[in-house]
Design goal:
Length: 653
């Protein structure tokens, strides 16, 4: 049992790991045992960017290195371990930024198509957000139609990707002091694609060979993700698909149905998912499913697409990253429909033991052995319908070897930046004032973002749970995205009742008054841009300093695995946030590079990285950082509960 628990703390997951073993199906948990990580690559000490290598430049373990040995510990070209480590790190940032950016680009082009009426079945859903964005971007509103305004916005946003000079438009949303820090250090991103291309060039053999310069340039690349590609994706998706508002749904493999056609949609870009949600309610298709002996169609999500559909439609979530193959192992899944990112190639091999169809839909992401059914946005309804039909046709092939774990849990999702604003301040005086006031009076100690992936190198969901519980127990309000949001959802932390059970008295009293859980689901990974907007709103509301780095906030990715997570970490740090990663860290082989990330960055950017694989200790580091910021703001003394009148509020500012 102990060995089993080392794999996951989620009972549905453990049950399906057992079933996979009985069925002879291979899954990630088993592969992680047979394929051990390469210790040289893991610490960032392998350079494989040219054919003179790969060069391995590990420091000798446990003995003092002579100066001469140190001089010789370089790549064939003479690249030092610092350069190699920094290059590897920046390449991860570039890959992560490229992924979020490419997602943002597809959304921007799609947005323009919707605005022009070229994407039938889609429309502008959030007019208020459209107009707000027009104001932010300086697009004329006047008596123009929403469509015309949207066309201008679409063109401006697409231009952000290929721009060659100037600054990305959303950067001017940041606190002024933050913008000054970025300008002073030369890290204001210009065009999103340009930053990625330049990062790839800088890290090419024989180009930038000063690790501090490389890592600083990496901040610019990463900011082009957070305040660029990711933010563009979030903003435009909200306008065409709707800005999330709180919605109740359920999560875990138990959301699959015994007697219906089960379809999981997995990946990241929501345009297909949106249409799938509509098509699965088509009476004609439901009737068709009945002709095959099913009682209906059951759609569920996996990974970040799941977050998107959950927030906007209440579509249940089948699981997070490490559960994708296990959904097939239930034997009850007719189709897993995927687009881009975080899709394991192992799905196809797992599916070979069951009847599940793996359907790829995006021209950029095909998988050998899967069925490719292109999703065409200009013919969205019909292409989604063909996919659903293929799943229905597969229902008759479902075998007898079906076991759906009984576990599922209620959760509330959809706490967008706008929603938090309304919930706290009310529809007519939307504001972060009550949050700031509660931080100042000490009921809420601070805010922590716990985000990112699962990683089979650490027990599935365990670090998240330990960290989040420790934070809320200490009155830290937690906001979550990505697969970590799902981990907390499964554990029952995303319902209002969790406040009473798990939160400290101060946080619990605020949650009770507002009617929110102590752990807020903010969205998919690209929606970490919502957290940037929330921190900015906290600064602008006053009383907590004049920059993001002054706020009593911290961030963490306790079970991260993807390059996107590194890009997110770097833009959080570059935006002034203390950010701690668990599991492992890709620069541990080099002290100089780690020192830059963990210490020097604080002097330059006001935020810094930390690495702490023990989630309890990591939570304590976050709390200590929050307390440090409270002290600097002069709000560290426990305060009496006082009702603020206007004069007092002004005095606070
Ligand atoms: Ni984020 Fe989403 Fe999950 Fe990690 Fe993957 S799904 S974009 S990368 S694994 S949180």
């Amino acid at each position: 049992m102990a060995e089993k628990e080392a794999k996951s703390i989620d009972l549905a997951t453990l049950e399906m790991i057992d079933k996979a073993a009985q069925d002879g199906a291979h899954v990630v948990f088993e592969r992680a045992e047979t394929t051990r990580p390469c210790p040289i690559g893991a610490e960032g000490s392998c350079c494989s960017i040219c054919a003179m290598g790969p060069c391995r430049v590990m420091a000798p373990k446990g003995k003092q290195e002579t100066l001469e040995d140190r001089r010789r510990r370089v790549g064939v070209c003479g690249a030092t371990p610092e350069t190699i480590s920094a290059r590897n790190f920046v390449r991860k940032i570039a890959a992560g930024t490229a992924s979020h950016g490419d997602h943002g680009r597809v959304v921007a082009k799609f947005f323009l198509a919707v605005a022009k009426g070229e994407a039938p079945g889609y429309e502008i859903k959030d007019e208020q957000k459209l107009l707000q964005l027009a104001l932010d971007l300086g697009v004329t509103i006047g008596d123009r139609s929403n469509k015309d305004i949207a066309v201008d916005i679409g063109n401006l946003m697409i231009n952000e990707f290929g721009k060659q000079e100037g600054e990305l438009l959303f950067l001017r949303r940041a606190p002024l002091k933050r913008q000054e820090i970025w300008r002073k250090n030369g890290v204001m991103p210009r065009g999103i694609d340009m930053e990625v291309a330049e990062a790839m060039h800088r890290t090419h053999m024989g180009t930038d060979q000063d690790y501090r310069d490389l890592l600083t340039a990496g901040v610019r690349t990463a900011l082009a993700d957070g305040w660029g590609g990711s933010m563009i994706a979030t903003e435009l998706q909200d306008i065409i698909f709707g800005t999330p508002a709180p919605v109740l749904s359920s999560i875990n493999l138990g959301v699959l149905a015994e007697d219906k056609v089960n379809i999981i949609i997995h990946g990241h870009e929501p345009s297909l998912a949106e249409m799938m949600a509509t098509v699965c309610q088509d009476p004609e298709l439901i009737e068709y499913a009945k002709t095959k002996g099913a009682k209906g169609i059951n759609l569920a999500g996996m990974c970040c697409t799941a977050n998107e559909m959950l927030m906007r439609h209440g579509v249940p979530i089948a699981g997070n990253f490490l559960q994708q193959e296990l959904a097939i192992v239930t034997g009850a899944l007719e189709a897993i429909v995927v687009d881009v990112q975080c899709i394991m190639q192992g799905l196809v091999d797992t599916a070979s033991c069951y009847h599940t169809k793996v359907i790829t839909t995006d021209a950029r992401a095909k998988i050998q052995g899967a069925t490719h059914m292109p999703f065409e946005e200009h013919n969205a309804y019909e292409s989604a319908k063909a996919i659903v039909k293929a799943a229905i046709d597969n229902y008759v092939n479902r075998g007898k070897n079906v076991r759906i774990p009984k576990y599922k849990q209620d959760m509330i999702a959809g706490f967008s930046h706008e929603t938090i604003n309304y919930l706290l301040g009310g529809m007519f005086r939307a504001s972060y004032r009550p949050l700031n006031d509660n931080i100042i009076n000490g009921r809420i100690r601070g805010v922590a973002a716990v985000v990112g992936c699962n990683n089979p190198r650490t027990p599935h969901d365990a670090s998240n749970l330990i960290m989040v519980k420790e934070l809320i127990k200490n009155d830290v309000l937690v906001v979550q995205t990505g697969c970590m949001a799902m981990a907390s959802g499964k554990a029952g932390l995303m319902v209002p009742e969790a406040a009473k059970e798990f939160a400290g008295p101060g946080l619990a009293s605020v949650c009770e008054a507002v009617g929110i859980p102590p752990v807020l689901h903010v969205g998919a990974c690209i929606d970490n841009s919502r957290i940037l907007m929330s921190t900015t709103a906290m600064v602008k509301d006053g009383g907590l300093g004049d920059d993001i780095s002054d706020l009593p906030v911290a961030a963490a990715a306790p079970e991260w695995m993807s390059e996107k997570a590194i890009a997110i970490g770097q833009y959080a740090v570059g935006s002034g946030v203390f950010t701690v990663f668990g599991c492992n860290f890709p620069t541990t082989g080099n002290k100089e590079v780690s020192d830059f990330l963990f210490k020097e960055m604080e002097e330059i950017f006001g935020g810094m990285w930390a690495f702490e694989p023990d989630p309890l200790k990591a939570a304590q580091l976050m709390i200590a950082h929050i307390d440090k910021k409270r002290k600097a703001l002069g709000i560290d003394k426990a305060r009496e509960r006082v009702l603020y009148d206007m004069a007092m509020r002004r005095a606070l500012e």
